[in-house]
Amino acid sequence: MGLCLVRSRALLGLEARPVCVEVHLANGLPSFTLVGLADTEVKEARERVRSAIANSGLDFPANKRITVNLAPADLPKDSGRFDLPIALGILGASGQVPLAAIDGHEFAGELSLGGELRPVRGALTMSLALRREAVPDVSLVLPPGSAEEAALVPDARVYRAAHLIDVVDQLRQHGAPEEGNTGAGKGWSLAQASAATPADYADLADVKGQAAAKRALEIAAAGGHSLLMCGPPGSGKSMLAHRFAGLLPPLDNDEALEAAALASLAGRFDLARWGQRPTAAPHHTASAVALVGGGSPPRPGEISLAHHGVLFLDELPEFVRPALEALREPLETGRIRISRATVQTEFPARFQLIAAMNPCPCGYLGHPTRACRCSPEQVARYQGKLSGPLLDRIDLMVDVPALPPDHLLHGMAGEPSACVRERVVAARQRALARQGEANQTLSGQALDAHVQADATALKFLQNAAQRLGWSARSTHRALRVARTIADLAGQEQVGVAEVAEAVQYRRGPGGRG
Question: For a 10 Å CB count at each end of the chain, is N or C smaller?
């Protein structure tokens, strides 16, 4: 009889909870039992592990009663990440791997039938959890791809193993290789974090004209504000939106790790895009669950995958109503809580919403040369798909008119993104030095303390809010936008000119006040 304990981790939202894989070998009727609230994918590990051990030239104890317990028993486990720890537990319990060598490592990896290790979701989340818990003298052993991802966490000790036999050979040596040494197996090495790839964003200079829309993009980037663009087809709304990420300041290391951990959890992490602002652009047929997250176990949605980045929603009124209404709380709080019968999970969702829409179903309402075919009722019904509470949470709204062909063909190129980004970075630094956060997140006493608007400007805003019938939320959003405009101009005080410009950006689609 033999007992072996192997450390691993299960994903629960953005957490990587510790899991102890307990393997017990006993005499009796040969069997392979797996318990511990395992999903179907985990239960299928029995066949993968059996074949991988046999095809790696190792001895599978087929004449024993094998019991595998994934503790704690009340924590859901999914995916093939437990293949490697289960295989090592069987080998350790049968005496083929020293038990002392297994201690001090955490393992995760899916096994092929031939014993090769395949990447798993959430490797970066595991590495972050290990750093957060400050577990001493514990290293991660992960498959290729997952190991390089986990190594992005500073001071993380992560080993890369390509095959089950590489892990077994190394553990039999009872020691980890030094840096630069590939270890016993050719596929075992210390994983190294790759350098960030320079971001390659589309340039704002490609867009000719549309000075008002470009100004709104600059203000949105400087203050972290959401933006809705309304205009006819072909006016450049999508071109402007796709160039927005290039105006934002670069991510710091903590922000990059948070964004990458969410992408890793969804299986979308790409090392080539490490350190770049994430951009999510779901199709307008996306469901509410696809947008905000969900499922069992809960997975992050598009709004969380755009954390610290951009969420671009083109053809905004074409999204289903529940999906749009689900954006209301995350736009306000920067987080989304997904509640199911057995589990509650919270994901961060501090994204910048950039949305685009046509002014009417045919798209040509107000066009200088093409007639609109829509009746007033059709226009009202189309624009009414966006509820008042949702529009109330959008900071900037700007019309993007159609431009004449001669302007497009012979007009001068616009200002490059790099020049705009310099002003955006300077404005953000002023805000951070003053209040420690972006203007968009100011609320309550912090808003009163840091806006620094003079009495004339506040009186002007009060009159505008009363005339336009604004809510308190709309009034505060206009005040935040005015604070950002002042930061772009390098002014400490918010005056009437800044407030007047901010008021112009609170007009609804098609010029509705």
Answer: N
Enter the pTM of the model.
0.88
CB-based burial label for 208 (10 Å; 0-12, 13-18, 19+): middle
Phi, psi angle pair for 224, to nearest 5°: 75, 30
Q: 414 and 272 in one domain?
A: yes
φ, ψ of residue 165 to 5 degrees: the values are: -65, -30
% pLDDT > 90, the chain:
72
Does the residue 308 lie in any domain? Answer: yes
The answer to the question of residue 483 being in a domain is no
- Closest Cα partner for 355 from 304, 311, 393, 324? 311
Higher pLDDT, 267 or 248: 248
Domain total of the chain: 2
Nearest CA-CA partner of 316 in 509, 122, 93 = 509
Instruction: Tell me the per-residue pLDDT of 39-51, one tens digit each, with 9 for 90 and over.
Output: 888 999 999 999 9
pLDDT of residue 312: 97
How many C-beta atoms lie closer than 10 Å to residue 454's C-beta?
A: 13
361 and 249 assigned to the same domain: yes
Question: 237, 218, 199, 196: which is closest to 416 by C-alpha?
Answer: 218
Judge whether 492 and 480 are in contact, CB under 8 Å.
no
Q: What is the pLDDT of residue 182?
A: 40
List strands edge to edge, sheet with 15-26: 31-35, 65-71, 15-26, 2-12, 105-107, 139-142, 158-161, 188-190
Q: How far is CA 477 from the centre of its chain?
A: 25
My answer on whether 225 and 149 are in the same domain is: no
- pLDDT-derived band at 408 (thresholds 50, 70, 90) equals low
> What pLDDT shows up at residue 410?
60
Q: What confidence score (pLDDT) does residue 209 get?
A: 83
Are the C-beta atoms of 390 and 325 separated by less than 8 Å? yes
Residue bearing the bigger pLDDT, 428 or 200: 428
- Which residues constitute the domain of residue 410? 204-418
Please list, in sequence order, all residues whose beta carbon lies within 8 angstroms of the beta carbon of residue 72, skipping any fewer than 6 positions away.
19, 36
- DSSP helix/strand/coil, 68: strand
Q: 154 and 123, same structural domain? A: yes
Q: What CATH number is associated with residue 298?
A: 3.40.50.300
Rounded Cα gap, residues 165 and 497, in angstroms = 70
Tokens matching residue 416: 């490059």
Structural domain contains residue 496? no
491 lies in some domain: no
pLDDT digits over 437-471, tens only? 999 999 888 998 999 899 999 999 999 999 988 98
Identify the band that residue 284 occupies on the pLDDT scale cut at 50, 70 and 90: very high
Q: Is 152 found in the same domain as 247?
A: no
Report d(CA 507, CA 400) in Å as an integer.
13
Q: For residue 26, how many C-alpha atoms fall within 13 Å in the half-sphere facing its CB? A: 9
